[in-house]
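Model: You mentioned two targets. I'll fold them one after the other.
Researcher: Yes, keep them separate.
Model: Target one:
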Amino acid sequence: MRGLWVKWRDFVALTKPRVVLLIVFTALVGMFLAVPGMVPWVPAVFGFIGIWLAAASAAALNHLIDRRADAEMTRTRRRPLPSGNLTEGQALLFALALGALSMLILVVFTNVLTAVLTFCSLIGYAIIYTVFLKRATPQNIVIGGAAGAAPPVLGWTAITGHIGAEPLLLFLIIFAWTPPHFWAVAIHRREDYAKVNIPMLPVTHGVPFTRLQVFFYTVLLVLVTLLPYLIGMSGPIYLAGAVLLGAVFLYYAIRLGMTPHDSRLPMKTFGFSIVYLLVLFTFLLVDHYVWPLIV
């Protein structure tokens, strides 16, 4: 029994559960923002499951493709494939099974548009980003961020069957959030990336330049997060939350540039960036249901 539990734990680790949790949460918010009242439960439940399975499949493929680099990096060498706990064949079958089940659920219980967009996101992250962009350009995170920014759009289309300006704005928020989020941890792990010849920005352009880019993208992010209020998509509750969160994120970005000798600050910035996105999307959800009751 213990052996089965350990094996199951390794399969779960392949799906990067913490990352996937953040992804499916933004997709869930996209679902609830798509309609004025409560969402219809069938497309919401099965859309959530389908998007989660696709994200888990993409994560498992990422593990498989990056297995050799992971074996050399301190942060990743204990993952299931480099450690030998799972074989490449097991990881591939697991990833393909999750992906196939995801597509089946989305086609049957949501709509074809959601299935197609989800499949494109899966391929965008697992193949286009991981295989090509990650090793081709220091702008890998910027370009590849499109796949990670798609979940709110997927959630929206699962409920409505079409794409509008609002889900594209949610996409834009995550797209702008991705560079400062990843470049903060890349500063901390730059030696690992250099060891395996992955051209992350701190490796190719240096840490001071990367810190400056984190600041610029954080400013862009703060401006973009004001748009839901400006177009009437959200109300004052969201605006207050977005301004407060943006101010804290800017504080971290400024400190990151002004205190280069603080080795703990990149990971603190990275950690806050995760909290930032979770709370920002929570404000979107709260505003969507609470503000109409107030007015």
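Model: Target two:
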Amino acid sequence: MNTRALGRQGLRVSAIGLGCMGMSDFYGPASEDEAIATIHAAIDDGVDFIDTADIYGPFTNERLVGRALRGRRDRVVLATKFGNVRSEDGKWLGIDGRPEYVRKACDASLQRLGVDQIDLYYQHRVDRTVPIEETVGAMADLVRAGKVRFLGLSEASAGTIRRAHATHPISALQSEYSLWTRDPEAEILPTLRELGIGFVAYSPLGRGFLTGRFRGDADFRENDFRRNHPRFQGDNFAANRVLVERLRTVADDKKITLGQLALAWVMARGDEIVPIPGTTTRKHLAENLAAADISLSADDLARLDAAAPHGATAGDRYSEAGMRSING
């Protein structure tokens, strides 16, 4: 597996990472044994970038990842996040970027993960009630204390990124980016390139939609949170199915899967971009990792731009409340 640099502070990670959220939350039940086996397989196949967050579960995903990394900790770059706050029963309590919460959240994550240091620590969502300089200042204290190596933000606006980076170097921004979420191209990616900050693309498969396997409500479990996403509902769902079929033509011509096409496209957008597709099985992991060996020609990229231009996707990517928490 080739590696890519995230930022200018020395952080390098595998060209594809592994998002672990779905192993514990949001998409319905998953086998913990298979999840751990999938993490092990990823590491054995050269993936050294493992992504989790305190709210996944809540709290259980960090523990699962911690168990999976026992005896393998020195082979991975471990990323986790703070800032979205949930209670033990899963209730959403808001966003917290206060310095005292930053310190408390980091110590709790270290304990759950069973490690002495977090390689990449993100603010999961920007707290609009706390100056970003105060939040990042507290994160910088964690670096000086040796608890964290590198800092990141998630779903932050260009202005916030600039202010944060002036407080302490930011190595990576994590935001949604895929063939059906091209919002970062207008302002975020140019800002990151100017400042020398890496980009970690979550949901590069469009929460699974870009694999082409979803055809209706019957494909989702009752507790799958995608049921509440505008892009997965009603007329939006139907319109987005048409978009996927346009992409399928390109994938079929290249004799690859839709998912591999989607991942190869994200990776082709820049050497500073690292996708972190999530999966709960070794079978889907192998399919995803094969995308690292796929090259897209200029003609391929032009066809994809025509098939899925910015704004082509029907519906917002989150509920109304979720949309208020992004671009902070």
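Researcher: Noted. Anything on target two?
Model: The chain has a mean pLDDT of 96.
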